[in-house]
């Protein structure tokens, strides 16, 4: 049975079992070795081992039957144990050490003897056993003649052995057709019949046919979906891509080297080369790469329609009306007024247009006759003249000049005797304003008689910057930028009275001016222009310039339009009826605008700047409210020289003629005429 | 769920509703990114640029309508089927079900692109308009190595070769080629078909290397579409000249890699039925191939097809001949010109010359051509040969009856539409620079020397020759030229008058500056012509010029002060662009000057 079992095992098991067989034999030998007592009858034992391996221990059992108890228990006894019949086994007499030694020395076989403590006897190992031990110690098989790897011999004969593995009777299903197979077949048959499974190769249809048949019907031939944006075509090659380009298309070695210094995206993608003959042209190594890039562009790049503007830049600029139609306007320098020794800081034109007055930082005020250029008068006031303004009333030829810190009102002495008389009356202060107010506070302004020029000095509490007359010629205003709540002052000449109605301003005031016709007042701070109603004493409007720093302001004679010049060279035109934001912003000057001014009669305005130029504009304001003002730049007036980085310091129009006076830092006053 | 259900937070209108990012589109369509790419390529869907990029600037946006357009395409379902089929095959193989696997492999799901083509290009002209990329791609793949085991299937490459040759044969046959240009990248051709200018690039006939830096999946998807498109276009074109498509070629010529010649033969044989030469050739081939057992069967089959086709063509060709004769009259002058450029010239190509390109170009311009090698129509020893094209340093044996020229001569002749003198292109000589015909020299602002000095003159000379000949088109041209000239004259006249006026104005201005009154001015006007050369006047003149210059500058500046920031930027951009162009031209001139000076120094 066991054999049969072994045979049924797969082949590899057979090999294993064949290995086991010799080893089991050897195990048995070992057993016989360890418990062998007699040692004399080797051959008998060998036979016994071969016959019945397991029972060797029982047969040649030990004489002593005490079992495996510690022998110490018998240490003091005479016997060492009991034999199989129950008789005591006597201990042998002890030999003396010397005797033992002597015996051992005599005996040549002494090394083979082993003392068996258990049985209390000496055992002699046979030669063969000694050999086995020595072999075992060396880690070899105990018997020298054992082959550890013998060839396998399959002892079982298979053929002709009609023994079934199982004796069970054949099941019925072995003789009945399979139901599962039948189902499968039915399925397949149905699939084939219905054409779900096809065995023949599919028929090849013609690949190409006339896809675009007749194209007469255009309505049908429209692409559906979103509008198609065709991809831009690749650039056509230029001369430089030729295999044999002209010499000038080939960059020099230095140029090629310099490409390395450029940014990668700026670097030219293609470096022209020249080949002498067509046969020496190599394959283009980037052909596939470029094809691939094009593919990527085609399906990955977002496409939009972009209108490419291929226009003349001139056409983008606004079309301005012809300048000839806008004449007259000042174009060329007609006269130069020379005489000042320092920069002319300010000038003013008399109401009739016959005289001009100019104030310079050389400490003089000069009065000139316009037509001849003759200097009528030189008034040495002894300090810088920051601003000067002629009284707009022709009956009162009075000059208001800011000399040093204070304002000086003086008679220009240009009228006839009667006006001179009246002026003298006006310019006399009966009782000077006391130094201290009733409250013990220093007054903002004190009217004091000026002895030298027979005029009036208005002593302000702080330095005055600008002065401006009302058109009637009785009121005037001065601005003290650092004056805080008393920064803008209103003065009345006839009553010699001053007051400061504006307590609170949005920033430092720069300039102030009167409305030409109505009782309105404009104060320009650094960023805003406040419009006050003087009767109601309230703010009407606040114009937001958006400029960095306003430097000057001028009101259109109509009163609804304001121009403002700034220190960043921009000029704002406000249409106060339209909005509080600038109607137009003109980026004209490169440097600070020093002054802006409107002409009283002609539709002209001008701006002067530190960059030594003055611009003249046409600024037409229509009475029709629906029509926006028309602004046309007309002329750039040059001629002044730059001195100490200052250019034109002031500009004023002639009250009647289209003439412009400019005061330059080069101590010259110029008159520009048509 | 109701039809109009809109998830909460989803926008109803505006850019957020109109555009969808790519990731969202892919998940919306429930397909993989690879399939999405393929779909986009085949359907011609491209990203759009929304006015406001709702989900970030760095994302790609598709229009929702485009995505819906993709979603409705049956191709998506087909791609899913293919995926499923692939899985089935894999499973069958894994289960060792060989039968099933074979059966499945026999009938893979396929799809056709003809519907897509008609959808993308509803009219034939639309398709021609977009043909540039298609042709370039097909020609590029035709030049790739047809090696088994590479990333591109051999069959695809053969197909590309076939399609490109068919296209070239048509162009050559109808004399539609207009311009050619040998560049470093390859040879550019420009043809005119149905009024559309089609430009394509053919790589040089050298082995291309397949590089790793390209994604062949993308390219092959493009190629798939392009192959189909070009096939249908070729069919339509062949149909229009009454030739059967696909053409059946002489296998012997095909084997010799002279498909183009074979094709042109096929086309002309379609015209002249019962061409004895062809038949003889085919018989030759038959006897040759008799030994090769399996191949003969195939070739006989083809032969049968061919013979079957020839009589079928007969009535059509007759009709066509009639048509041709009538069509000739209506053809425009350029086609006529192109057809007659190389008329009565016989070319012979040496071994080292790029054969395919010249076999295409020369017949396209009416010449006859042969080459060194088997299957050539005539020998090198043929006495009628007028030009032999050679690209070697020296020619050992020289026939006196013909001229030996370099290949560039042919290209330059074609571009200038005249037969150039061969003296510049003689063997062994460095040929003159090869110039691109696609550049508008006037627009660039620089004309290369060769163009300016020689080609222009030659062209003008040839025109003169043509002018006296009576011809409808030429006369028209002449008239228009005369018109143009008179117009130009008028303009010039006007300009001169304006100049005069301006000068006068300046003069007056000058007077004004000098502070003279009008009366004296009148006096001076009388004097002025008498002493024309006056130093003082000169100085004043200069001053006036300065002033005028200043005035012009002022004007520009003043008008600039009125321009809005946006327009100002635009103006600046235009100016920068102009400046760049100018500097480019400047650089060319500088290089030219240096080159010529160094050349002259060498000569000394």
UniProtKB/TrEMBL annotation, chain A:
Required for maturation of ribosomal RNAs and formation of the large ribosomal subunit. This is Ribosome biogenesis protein BOP1 homolog. GO terms for molecular function: ribonucleoprotein complex binding. It is found in: Nucleus, Nucleolus; Nucleus, Nucleoplasm. WD repeats lie at residues 337-378. It comes from Brachypodium distachyon (Purple false brome). Residues 1-75 are annotated as: Disordered. Its main location: nucleus. SUPFAM superfamilies: WD40 repeat-like. Transmembrane segments: none annotated. Belongs to the WD repeat BOP1/ERB1 family. Residues 1-12 have a biased composition (Basic and acidic residues). GO terms for biological process: maturation of 5.8S rRNA from tricistronic rRNA transcript (SSU-rRNA, 5.8S rRNA, LSU-rRNA); maturation of LSU-rRNA from tricistronic rRNA transcript (SSU-rRNA, 5.8S rRNA, LSU-rRNA). Residues 22-31, 38-59 have a biased composition (Acidic residues). Keywords: Nucleus, Repeat, Ribosome biogenesis, rRNA processing, WD repeat.
TrEMBL record, chain B:
Gene3D superfamilies: BRCT domain. One of its GO terms (molecular function) is ribonucleoprotein complex binding. It comes from the Eukaryota. Residues 282-298, 524-539 have a biased composition (Basic and acidic residues). GO terms for cellular component: nucleoplasm; PeBoW complex; preribosome, large subunit precursor. It is found in: Nucleus, Nucleolus; Nucleus, Nucleoplasm. SMART domains: BRCT (SM00292). Its main location: nucleus. InterPro entries: BRCT_dom, BRCT_dom_sf, PES. Residues 337-427 form the BRCT domain. CDD domains: BRCT_pescadillo_like. Keywords: Coiled coil, Nucleus, Ribosome biogenesis, rRNA processing. Pfam families: BRCT_2, Pescadillo_N. Residues 484-511 form a coiled coil. Residues 590-604 have a biased composition (Basic residues). GO terms for biological process: maturation of 5.8S rRNA from tricistronic rRNA transcript (SSU-rRNA, 5.8S rRNA, LSU-rRNA); maturation of LSU-rRNA from tricistronic rRNA transcript (SSU-rRNA, 5.8S rRNA, LSU-rRNA). The keyword rRNA processing applies. Required for maturation of ribosomal RNAs and formation of the large ribosomal subunit. Belongs to the pescadillo family. This is Pescadillo homolog. It comes from Brachypodium distachyon.
């Amino acid at each position: 049975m066991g054999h049969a079992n072994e045979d049924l095992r797969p082949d590899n098991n057979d090999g294993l079992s064949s290995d086991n067989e010799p080893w089991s034999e050897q195990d048995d030998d070992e057993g016989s070795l360890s418990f062998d007592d007699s040692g004399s009858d080797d051959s008998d034992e060998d036979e016994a081992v071969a016959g019945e391996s397991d029972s060797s221990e029982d047969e040649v059992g030990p004489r002593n039957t005490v079992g495996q108890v510690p022998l110490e228990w018998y240490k003091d006894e005479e016997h060492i144990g009991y034999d199989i019949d129950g008789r005591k086994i006597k201990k042998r007499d002890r030999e003396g050490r010397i005797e033992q030694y002597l015996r051992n020395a005599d005996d040549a076989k002494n090394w083979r003897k082993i003392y068996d403590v258990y049985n209390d006897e000496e055992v002699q190992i046979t030669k063969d056993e000694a050999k086995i031990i020595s072999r075992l110690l060396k880690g070899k098989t105990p018997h020298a003649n054992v082959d550890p790897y013998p060839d396998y011999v399959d002892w079982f004969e298979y053929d002709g052995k009609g023994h079934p593995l199982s004796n069970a009777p054949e099941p019925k299903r072995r003789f009945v057709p399979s139901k599962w197979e039948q189902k499968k077949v039915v399925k397949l048959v149905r699939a084939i019949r219905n054409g779900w499974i096809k065995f023949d190769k599919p028929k090849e249809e013609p690949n190409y046919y006339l896809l675009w048949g007749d194209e007469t019907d255009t309505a049908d031939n429209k692409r559906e979906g979103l509008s198609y944006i065709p991809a831009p075509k690749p650039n056509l090659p230029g001369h430089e891509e030729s295999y044999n380009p002209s010499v000038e298309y080939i960059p020099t070695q230095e140029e090629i080297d310099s490409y390395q210094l450029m940014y990668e995206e700026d670097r030219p993608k293609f470096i022209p080369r020249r080949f002498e003959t067509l046969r020496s042209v190599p394959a283009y190594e980037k052909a596939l790469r470029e094809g691939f890039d094009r593919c990527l562009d085609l399906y990955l790049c977002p496409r939009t329609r972009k209108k490419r503007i291929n226009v003349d830049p001139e056409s983008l600029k606004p079309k301005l009306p012809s300048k000839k139609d806008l004449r007259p306007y000042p174009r060329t320098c007609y006269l130069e007024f020379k005489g000042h020794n320092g920069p002319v800081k300010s000038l003013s034109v008399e109401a009739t247009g016959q005289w001009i007055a100019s104030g310079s930082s050389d400490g003089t005020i000069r009065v000139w006759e316009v037509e001849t250029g003759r200097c009528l008068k030189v008034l040495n006031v002894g300090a810088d003249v920051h601003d000067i303004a002629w009284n707009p009333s022709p009956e009162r030829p009075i000059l208001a000049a800011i000399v040093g810190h204070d304002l000086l009102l003086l008679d220009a002495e240009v009228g006839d005797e009667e006006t001179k008389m009246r002026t003298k009356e006006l310019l006399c202060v009966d009782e000077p304003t006391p130094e201290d107010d009733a409250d013990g506070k220093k007054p903002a302004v004190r009217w004091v008689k000026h002895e030298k020029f027979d005029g009036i000095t208005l002593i302000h509490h702080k330095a005055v910057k600008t002065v401006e007359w009302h058109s009637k010629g009785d009121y005037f205003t001065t601005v003290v930028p650092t004056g805080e709540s008393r920064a803008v002052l209103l003065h009345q000449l006839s009553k010699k009275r001053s007051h400061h109605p504006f307590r609170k301003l949005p920033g430092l005031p720069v300039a102030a001016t009167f409305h030409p016709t109505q009782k309105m007042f404009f104060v320009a701070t650094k960023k805003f222009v406040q419009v006050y109603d003087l009767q109601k004493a309230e703010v009407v409007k606040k114009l937001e310039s958006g400029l960095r720093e306003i430097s000057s302001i001028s009101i259109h004679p109509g009163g609804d339009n304001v121009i403002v010049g700034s220190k960043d060279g921009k000029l704002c035109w406000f249409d106060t009826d339209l909005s509080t934001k600038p109607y137009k912003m003109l980026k004209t000057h490169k440097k600070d605008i020093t002054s802006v001014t409107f002409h009283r009669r002609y539709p002209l305005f001008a701006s002067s700047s530190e960059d030594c130029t003055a611009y003249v504009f046409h600024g037409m304001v229509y009475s029709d409210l629906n029509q926006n003002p028309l602004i046309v730049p007309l002329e750039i007036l040059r001629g002044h020289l730059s001195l100490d980085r200052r250019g034109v310091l002031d500009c004023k129009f002639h009250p009647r003629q289209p003439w412009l006076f400019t005061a330059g830092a080069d101590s010259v006053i110029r008159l520009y005429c048509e | 769920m109701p039809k109009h259900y809109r998830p909460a937070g989803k926008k109803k209108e505006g850019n957020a509703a109109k555009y969808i990012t790519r990731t969202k589109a892919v998940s919306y369509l429930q397909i993989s990114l690879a399939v999405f790419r393929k779909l986009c390529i085949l359907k011609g869907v491209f990203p759009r640029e929304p006015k406001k990029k709702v989900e970030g600037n760095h994302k790609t946006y598709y229009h929702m309508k485009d995505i819906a357009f993709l979603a409705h395409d049956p191709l998506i379902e087909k791609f899913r089927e293919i995926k499923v089929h692939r899985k089935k095959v894999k499973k069958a193989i894994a289960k060792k079900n060989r039968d099933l696997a074979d059966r499945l492999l026999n009938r893979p799901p396929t799809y056709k692109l003809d519907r897509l083509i008609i959808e993308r290009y509803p009219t034939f002209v639309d398709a021609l308009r977009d043909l540039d990329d298609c042709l370039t791609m097909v020609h590029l793949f035709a030049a790739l190595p047809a090696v088994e085991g590479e990333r591109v299937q051999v069959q695809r490459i053969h197909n590309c070769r076939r399609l490109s040759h068919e296209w070239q044969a048509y162009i050559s046959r109808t004399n539609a080629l207009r311009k050619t240009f040998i560049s470093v990248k390859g040879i550019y051709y420009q043809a005119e078909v149905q009024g559309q200018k089609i430009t394509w690039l053919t790589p040089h006939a050298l082995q291309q290397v397949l590089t790793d830096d390209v994604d062949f999946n993308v390219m092959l998807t493009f190629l798939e579409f392009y192959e189909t498109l070009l096939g249908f276009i070729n069919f339509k074109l062949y149909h229009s000249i009454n030739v059967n498509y696909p053409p059946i070629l002489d296998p012997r010529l095909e084997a010799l890699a002279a498909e183009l010649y074979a094709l042109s033969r096929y086309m002309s044989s379609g015209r002249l039925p019962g061409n004895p030469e062809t038949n003889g050739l085919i018989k030759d081939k038959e006897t040759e191939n008799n030994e090769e057992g399996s191949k003969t069967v195939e070739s006989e089959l083809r032969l049968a097809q061919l013979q079957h086709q020839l009589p079928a063509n007969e009535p059509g060709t007759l009709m066509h001949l009639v048509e041709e004769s009538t069509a000739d009259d209506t053809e425009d002058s350029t086609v006529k010109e192109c057809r007659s450029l190389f008329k009565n010239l016989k070319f012979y190509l040496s071994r080292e010359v790029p054969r395919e390109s010249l076999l295409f170009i020369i017949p396209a311009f009416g010449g006859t051509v042969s080459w060194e090698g088997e299957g050539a129509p005539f020998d090198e020893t043929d006495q009628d040969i007028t030009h032999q094209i050679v690209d070697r340093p020296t020619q050992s044996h020289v026939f006196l009856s013909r001229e030996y020229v370099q290949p560039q001569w042919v290209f330059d002749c074609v571009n200038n539409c005249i037969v150039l003198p061969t003296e510049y292109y003689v063997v062994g000589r460095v040929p003159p620079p090869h110039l691109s015909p696609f550049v508008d020299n006037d627009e660039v602002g620089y004309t290369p020397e060769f163009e300016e000095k020689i080609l222009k003159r030659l062209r003008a000379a040839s025109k003169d020759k043509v002018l006296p000949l009576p011809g409808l088109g030429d006369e028209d041209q002449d008239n228009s030229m005369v018109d143009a000239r008179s117009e130009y004259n008028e303009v010039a006249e006007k300009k001169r008058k304006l100049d005069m006026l301006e000068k006068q104005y300046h003069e007056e201005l000058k007077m004004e500056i000098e502070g003279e009154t009008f009366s004296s001015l009148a006096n001076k006007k009388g004097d002025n012509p008498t002493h024309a050369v006056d130093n003082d006047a000169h100085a004043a003149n200069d001053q006036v010029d300065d002033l005028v210059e200043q005035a012009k500058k002022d004007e520009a500046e003043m008008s600039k002060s009125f321009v809005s920031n946006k327009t100002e930027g635009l103006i600046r951009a235009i100016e920068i662009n102009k400046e760049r162009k100018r500097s480019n031209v400047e650089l060319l001139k500088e290089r030219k000057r240096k080159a010529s000076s160094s050349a002259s120094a060498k000569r000394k």
